[in-house]
Each structure stands twice: as structure tokens, then as C-alpha cells.
Specification:
Rossmann fold; binds flavin mononucleotide; 183 residues
Amino acid sequence: MSEILIAFFSSTGNNRYIANRFAKELQCDIEEIKPRFDFHVYLFVASRYPWLYLGNNPLMHLPAGYRKVVLCGPIWMGSYLAPLRSFVINYGGDINQLYFVTCCGSSEENSKSKYGYESVFSELKNTSTNRSIQCYPLSMSLVVPDAQKDDNETIMKARLSDENFSGEMLNRFNEIKKRIASD
Ligand SMILES: Cc1cc2nc3c(=O)[nH]c(=O)nc-3n(C[C@H](O)[C@H](O)[C@H](O)COP(=O)(O)O)c2cc1C
């Protein structure tokens, strides 16, 4: 068994792509988080109202068996998504070192806005019993052409692939990977 577990939730594939790359390049185990009720409307509502706990299906790899856990998942409407929250509620206390990597739409420039990743990072840190959490964004704005970096629709529709996973996106991914490997 490896010392790192990659756990991910992904709806349109970007976080799956990131998670698979981490697993391949760090040569570690990978686990897909599957919500018990995998309907967008449920997930939206449960993300907005955290008391409405929906939960996930049981995992094949239990986080307690690993020294480091990397959680990958998206942000929707500025919310800390229910499947990610459920994972942290259920297993956060068992994890020594937790990394949250979100492949999301918001960029550094709007990270503190209503739909930016900063509020999700704060919520995750404030609601988890795990005190050793590092959060990293990988914005999809890094893979769209310069002329479309302010076009939300283009960013939302962008999908990661071996063709566009390059440049600054690849540099940042490599920095995070190095950090995880060396901790
Ligand atoms: C309905 C919806 C709402 C979204 N809202 C946000 C948001 O508030 N902030 C953000 O940074 N990205 C937002 N995004 C962009 C996603 O986080 C981004 O496309 C992500 O890479 C999707 O991950 P996935 O392909 O693994 O599901 C949203 C995407 C969708 C489909």
C-alpha cells in the first residue's frame, strides 16, 4: 500500500483528470468519492445547507491507512461541495496530512469574490477537525487562451486533456506534486 491516497469527486472530469495524474505520477492509490444521491440538484442543495447531510457510498481505501490524503474536487456556486464535506467530516480526524486541490473556475484575481475559492478553503479549514490542511487551486483560466480569460462561459466549459495540460497549469500542478511528495 502506498503512503498517499488520492480521493476525488468530479462531475465533468477535470478533477478526475488531476486526481489520475497525481495517482500516476506519485504512484499511489486512488479512490473516487461517490455521493449516495448523485443528482446535481441534491448536491447543490446539500452544499448550500450543510445540515442536510446526504453522505457518500463506502470507500474501498480507508484514509486512516495512509500518511497523506489528497482530496480533489470542484467548486460550484462558491460552495464547499457536499461530497467533499462529507468525506472530510467522516475521515478528516483520521488523516495526518490533508491536501485539498481544487480544479475550479475562479482565478487568483477573483479568488476572494463570492464564487472564488478562498471562502471554500476557509470553510474547509474551519469545519474540519484536521488541523493540518493545505489548500491549492488549479484554475481552469490557466488553460484557456489569453483573450478568453475573462469569459466565464469559456472557463466553465473548458475540459482538461493531455493536449491542454501544459504551461502554467502544468507548472502549478508540478509544484503541488513536489510539495506533497516532500512533506
Ligand atoms: C454549475 C457550476 C457552478 C460552478 N461554480 C463555480 C464557482 O462558484 N467557483 C469556481 O471557482 N468554479 C465554479 N465552477 C467551475 C468548476 O469548479 C470547474 O469547471 C471544475 O473544473 C469542474 O470540475 P469537474 O470537471 O471535476 O466536475 C462551476 C461549475 C459548474 C458546472
